[in-house]
Amino acid sequence: MERVPVELWLHVFSIACSDDGRTGRSLSMVSRRVNELSKPFKYQSIAVDKLSNIAALTEILQNLPIEFRAVHKLFIHVPEFSPNDWDDDFMDRMSTGSSDDGQMEYDAQVQDEDESMSDSDEEPVPEEDQAKADDQAIQDLQRLLTLVSPTLTILTLFWRSFEPMLVEEILVPLPHLRELCLFRTVMANTEELEPSTEEKVPTLLPSLIRLHLGGLREDRPMTFGQFLLDLSPSLRELRIPMHVIADDSQDPPEYWQVPITVTKVLLEGSPTTLATSSMQAVVPNLPRKFFGDKAAGRTVEFDLINEAFHWKEWRRRWVSRAEGGGGCWC
Fold this sequence. Notes:
Radius of gyration: 21 Å
Number of helices: 13
Structural class: alpha/beta
Helix content: 25-40%
Strand content: 5-15%
């Protein structure tokens, strides 16, 4: 190893640590020399697959020198927002309403068993605990996002909560973010599914180029195009579920027209959804629906997948982007 120039090793480690964080953790255990040289890249691309890991990762990054905590690509998924996933640290923070100053352990094991997604055998969670859990989880999330915001460029967030949340209730300003994939869902027993407000959305993502939205829609007194323009004025590519287009009978004709900066709209969904009569009825008019009279040079495309709303598919595509592939944008 000593015969290879340090610059070459740094280049190798920068490429190798472009996955979900496993390579960075493995390099730390190879040797002291490898651990030292790979430190700047260990957290540049990382996936958080457990509720407790959000706060744990924040604590780890806070204790690192600033040159070693540059996170460029981040995936966050709450496998099941239920008491089964509330460890002692999370419950302590819920009860005290403050951040934990003790040592927290980051557990890199991915929870990917489908049975972990079921809460059918659990006792109902009291409303007071639901509100506290939502508040604490969002507090943990926003602390992490604030910490990595100076370097974060790609983010996928698959978020589950007890109550529906507006985008500004989840995200913090991310001035350098270029790509965002955001899926919001709520517990099945929630009565009101769409978050609503009379306020305009703040410009949280001024540098965003690509936006993938799934799950809940927001109810605001503005068109979808105005929402996009306010949130991300530099947006060029948009990906949304095709079923929302087929079920838009209550929306005014101009509702779906996107900002002039957007040149590509990707509609995702299953072949079955595309074959429905309601979807087939709108397909011929989609360019005009999204672009109005300025459709020249702008495209509407389809991505036919059966797992469009499953977190595993979102994680797989995030890993593809982290490794330099097309992800959900190819």
